[in-house]
Amino acid sequence: MRIIGQIILIAGLAAAGAGAWYGWDRLAGGEAGKASATVTPATVRPVTVELAAVTPRQLARVVEAVGTARAMDAVTVATKISGRIAELNFTPGTTVEAGRVLAALDDAAARANVAQLEAAVHEAQTQLERTRQLRQRNAVSAAEFDTRTTSLAGARAQLAAARAELADHKVVAPFSGRVGLRQVSIGAVVGPDTAITTLDDIDPIKLSFAVPETALAQLSAGQTVAARSAAYPDDAFTGRVQFIDTRIDVATRAVTVEAAVDNPDGRLKPGMFMAVTLTLDPGPDVPTIPEAAMIREGRLAYVYVAGTDGVARRRIIEPGRRQDGLIEVLKGLEPGEPVVVAGHQRLRDGAPITVATGTGTPPAAAG
């Protein structure tokens, strides 16, 4: 019995000791947890950050659209009359000046007709002069003189028509531009409906695109346009607005705008699809911050503002337009306030900060 009692006593003392140890460990752990959860500037190492001030700037208002390149002037070159092609005086893809003869029809018959009518005019002039002399001596009647006069006028009219028909045997460029491919060959019989080639004036080239009617009040001729093509992704082609349509499309609620884009090397072709950025008149100065300063969490946007007490405070903002690495701030910041642009990945609201040398000016302490 004594042995059993001793065993029970030893077991009880062991259990009591284990309980006391467990309780002490829990108590010590709880206090340590409380100490580690408390974050104060006095106990956390400052985070090195870079700052930038909220700066008022003008941000250009832009409209992005898609457009189609078109020639300033474009025609399908054809003859006025029917005939056989005798000459083709152009090289496809080259630039020609206005008035240059691009093609000529066989004009042998037309030239012969002009020569015949020139002779008829000469004869009519001779007959009229002879009749005038006779009329002065009253050798012929006034009616005879009038008949000769009418005959000369008729001959001259026929000659003028023949010369015009002869001129129509030559096809000339109506304006300066770049000719397209040959559609016919020398010796082919063509008519007014037969295309010989095309002629396009593409320097500058016309760019047509639609602008929403909401931007109509800020839209005006002379505004800058930048255009890009998938064919030349690294190049921007610049131009200016020339014309604004007088009507709004009732289906799209947009107005058609035409801009002239410089195209000296002819790389842009009529029909090309282009992405257009139209710069509208800039508005007043607005507060801006670098894009790197803004942090997004879902629909929420915020920044860290450096306070005069050496800590960073999280502040929710309402961003506006973006341009050239800057963001317009509609609400939440005032000009001159310093915001963190680098190092905010390790920041928390109320965390102490130190400003990296040469990257910004820490806010002055109050008092």
Automatic annotation (TrEMBL):
One matching Pfam family: Beta-barrel_RND_2
Coiled-coil positions: 107-134
Record keyword S-adenosyl-L-methionine present: no
Domain CusB-like beta-barrel: 207-279
Keyword Zinc applies: no
Gene3D superfamilies: 2.40.30.170, 2.40.420.20, 2.40.50.100, Helix hairpin bin
InterPro entries: Beta-barrel_RND_2 (IPR058792), MdtA-like_BSH (IPR058625), RND_pump_MFP (IPR006143), YknX-like_C (IPR058637)
A single GO molecular function term of this UniProt record: efflux transmembrane transporter activity
Family of the protein in this entry: Belongs to the membrane fusion protein (MFP) (TC 8.A.1) family.
Name listed for the protein in its UniProt record: Uncharacterized protein
Organism placement in taxonomy: Bacteria, Pseudomonadati, Pseudomonadota, Alphaproteobacteria, Geminicoccales
